[in-house]
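Pasting as-is:
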Amino acid sequence: MLPLVTLTTDFEEHDPFVASTKGVLYTQCPGVQIVDLSHQIHRQSVREGALFIAGAVPYFPDGTIHIVAVASGARPLAVSLNRQFIICPDNGLLTLLMEQYEIDEARAITNPKLNLAQGSQIYFARDVFAPAAAMLARGGSLGDVGDRIEQVAKLNFPRATKENDRLVSGRTIHVNRYGSLVTNIHKSFLKGCRVTEVRIGGFPVGPLKESYSQVEVGFPLALFGSSGYLEIAYHGDRADTRLKLDVGIIVSVAIEPSVA
């Protein structure tokens, strides 16, 4: 059985960009199953793309091939990570995934046979990413895409820090479509701890919640979003407008050891 090939882009779907990418995949790997993850990443938003794939990739089966075409134009690369493959520009999209998983192998896509443009203007998703994904889906080796590289680009995300046994601090790194303030504090960072209070910019949000239903409409809450990162949200409203806050705001999390 052929592996899944997923598509995540900042293309939307008004133009033929997504369709032509699929056309190359179907032509070069007949029978391939393509899964659209999202084509609504904001244009050129590498940060949003990094958060999106960090929340999606871990749930796919071994062997899945992910094409991530967000702010394409940087060096095209293909990596193996968490028993899957990711094909994307080398612009920091892998930053948050690399905090969860080590890259097993990374290759720059330099094989001229994987470039359909042949001297004309390159449309990376169609002309480079899709041929590389099709080759891997047919059973090709990662080594066939090009030269091995030792380092890939990382975004300058601030890191969450454990100040002491009672306090973790972080910052907001993204505002999602619902106005929720996404922080850089991943749930794995708080493993073994119970969150007693969350504050953002000094504003008390309260203890950690599991769902919006645990607070009344019009009240704030802190919870882990689908990407696994702590978010500050409002039930029935936008946290960014209610709190008048954006990216870069300090978030403090009071913790204590959880009782087994």
